[in-house]
């Protein structure tokens, strides 16, 4: 049985601060320190909780395995999601392993002055990601980082509700039916490929993100990983369920960011990878 959507909201402490919270600057520093430690192959340089857990592609690993051995440098692209209310910080980055580009999405949970959770996915090829165009992922997009006028900001609860209309649209096979509301220039960018919005030519009709043809993914599961209220981003952790692959068996495991303001989804950017059928998230959000 699929678990219901859950959302964690837990206070955190900054590793370098004594205060009882970790603000945006603190969480941004945590992400930076993490990425620097990853490139240095030195997890012990981080303030880790004694029971810290690390997963890569759904598997629990030691903090000297997987990407901790292979990542040699980072590209310029980095997109943060900073959520002081829940103590979660997320990041999508372009990295390199043996000179080859890879896409990494990572969620860090900070509590009690320590990193307690590290959840990560690495997409290394078209075979792993179904779509894979890292050459188009150069710098963080202007749309995802556009400042939001105070008059156009939505509340945290409203942002979450608007974002969740997107997976609901996939569940029923129609964004119109789920009343997903998009801005005039809204687009979807997945693993470096424009998949919907103005200028899209991937499939007929994909230039209209709201009215494009969709598969009906009745088994889709979505959880809120973080909400960046200042930057207007909701970050969903999703498994698209049966029927989500263009070829073969299995499912798509997805990290998807939604830029939301003025009551509309303005941009959608995702990293995704193929996983075996019925692969669980492995985390209680």
Explain the layout of strands and helices.
Blueprint: H1 24-40, E1 48-56, E2 59-61, H2 67-70, E3 73-83, E4 88-97, E5 100-111, E6 114-123, H3 126-129, H4 156-172, E7 188-190, E8 193-196, E9 221-228, E10 233-239, E11 251-261, E12 264-275
Parallel strand pairs: 1-6, 7-12
Antiparallel strand pairs: 1-2, 3-4, 4-5, 5-6, 7-8, 9-10, 10-11, 11-12
Strand-pairing-aware structural class: alpha+beta
Query: What's the end-to-end separation, in Å?
Result: 17 Å
Order of helices and strands: HEEHEEEEHHEEEEEE
Q: Give the integer mean of the pLDDT values.
A: 91
Q: What share of residues are in beta strands?
A: 35-45%
The best one-word shape is globular
Instruction: Supply Rg.
Output: 18 Å
Structure annotation, total helices: 4
Overview in brief:
This protein is an alpha+beta fold and 285 residues long. The protein contains 4 helices and 12 strands; from the N terminus they run αββαββββααββββββ.
Descriptive labels:
single chain; 285 residues; alpha+beta; six-stranded mixed β-sheet; disordered N terminus
Structural commentary:
- With 285 residues, the protein is of the alpha+beta class.
- The chain has 4 helices and 12 strands.
- The strands form 2 sheets. Strands 2-1-6-5-4-3 form a 6-stranded mixed beta sheet. Strands 8-7-12-11-10-9 form a 6-stranded mixed beta sheet.
- A hairpin with a 2-residue loop joins strand 4 (88-97) and strand 5.
- The longest helix has 17 residues, at 24-40.
- The two termini are 17 Å apart.
């Amino acid at each position: 049985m699929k678990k219901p959507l859950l959302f964690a909201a837990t206070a955190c402490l900054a590793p370098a601060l004594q205060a009882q919270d970790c603000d945006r600057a603190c969480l941004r520093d945590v992400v930076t320190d993490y990425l620097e430690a990853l490139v240095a192959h030195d997890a012990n340089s981080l303030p880790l909780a004694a029971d810290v857990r690390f997963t890569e592609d759904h598997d629990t690993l030691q903090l000297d395995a997987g990407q901790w051995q292979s990542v040699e440098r980072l590209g310029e692209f980095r997109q943060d999601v900073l959520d002081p209310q829940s103590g979660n910080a997320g990041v999508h980055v372009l990295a390199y392993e043996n000179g080859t580009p890879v896409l990494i999405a990572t969620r860090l949970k900070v509590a009690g002055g320590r990193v307690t959770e590290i959840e990560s996915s690495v997409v290394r090829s078209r075979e792993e990601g179904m779509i894979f165009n890292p050459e188009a992922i150069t710098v963080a997009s202007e749309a995802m980082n556009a400042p939001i006028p105070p008059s156009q900001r939505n509340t945290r609860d409203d942002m979450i509700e608007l974002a969740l209309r997107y997976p609901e649209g996939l569940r029923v096979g129609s964004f119109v039916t789920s009343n997903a509301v998009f801005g005039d220039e809204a687009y979807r960018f997945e693993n470096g490929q424009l998949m919907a919005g103005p200028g899209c030519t991937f499939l007929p009709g994909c230039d209209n993100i709201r009215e494009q043809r969709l598969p009906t993914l009745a088994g889709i599961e979505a959880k809120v990983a973080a909400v960046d209220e200042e930057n207007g981003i909701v970050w969903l952790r999703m498994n698209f369920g049966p029927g989500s692959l263009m070829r073969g068996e299995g499912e798509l495991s997805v990290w998807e960011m939604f830029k939301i303001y003025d009551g509309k989804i303005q941009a959608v950017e995702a990293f995704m990878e193929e996983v075996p059928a019925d692969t669980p998230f492995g985390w209680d959000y």
